[in-house]
Amino acid sequence: MIPPSNPSDSSCSSRRQFLGRTAVGAAAFGFPTIIPNHVLGNASVASANERVNIGYIGCGRRSNQLRGLPADARIVALADCNLLRAEADAARYKCKSFQDYRKMLEMADLDAVVVATPDHWHTLASIHACMAGKDVYVEKPMTLTIREGRQLTNAARKYERIVQCGSQQRSTNANVLACRLVREGAIGRILRVEAANFETPWSCNLPSQPVPTGIDWDMWLGQSQPHPYHEDIYRPRAKPGWISFRRWSGGEMTGWGAHGLDQIQCALGMENSGPVEIWTEGKPFAPPTWTEPGDRGIGDKQCSSPIVMMKYANGVELKFSGGARGGGTFYGEKGTIWIDRGSLKADPADIVQTYKDEMRQDKDPTQKHLANWIDCIKSRERSVADVEIGHRSATLCHLGNIARWAGGRLTWDPVGEQFKEKEANRFVQREQRKGYEIPDV
Residue 31: pLDDT band by 50, 70, 90 thresholds? Predict the structure, then answer.
């Protein structure tokens, strides 16, 4: 049982709980569970004048793009199930390397982690970090299922951690302005919204290949059910790659959708809520099963039908019909606003004419987003893409997939996070492999 939260020793409690929880997981991975004494000490919070020590969980493409830390932060460790990749990156940064990220979380001088793994590892690694007393920057989509998002949010609150979701458009000036204009009524009452027609993932049955030296494939699989190694699974967007397969991702519905639908949630002022109805228009969903490498576009075409529809409690309808992937089109009583990544347009155009200076980007949005996280680690204020925001935006993505998987018209309760139609609730979570379960927090 998790001990009650105590502000005077919450870090210590967090770490002991983490160690108790992860003992089972360590056994599954085949790693020792002997814990150094210093791990049970209080986790420190960096002061305004101290540098924040950061570890990275995952050393792939996106992880490298997130290494532009501000001057008051530094990389002290990297972890990846591909040990050779972790060691190569660690040599560049002159820091420690690990194959099991939980061993990295035992470091007494580690303040926070960046989680840049494949999607199916985002939540468990982040929860473990919270339990270990570390703050978290977790790449989008924050979760693989709706239940995961609620558990990670609970963990962030229980262990008093700063958790920033990697939705960098929240730190992109044009996007921040665009969402504010919609929210504050620049085009009057919103009548309807169009989103991109994001693709739902499909099934994978690729053949077995030898596991490359240095990769712990069982660890990479994590909570997902066993599947043999294949290079086009290991890479995110190959032919087609893990991001298109349901075992490990929500497809581009959660890939690009985590950006575009997040902007819609923000602009509509629904960051702590969501739609109340979801349904589809068109023929039933018919995803392919990939048995050999091929043209990813074929799968994308099959998995972008039928059209997904949603409705919010205030009557605003959202249609996934081919809008911008980084935002959406907002139709109001007084005009229209188009939002995309780093882009804002309006009709009538004079709606945005007075905001030219405000739209200019002063620094790279990803670096600005990381800097906000570091600032919040020191101030203990919630970040611009707080864990609840990340959860709610990911939930909208998951609902888009569920609409296609379940079919019919569904009633969603954004407070209780359950469907009225009980059969549809089987999609709120998924079966997880023993030893890699997302804990109840």
Answer: very low
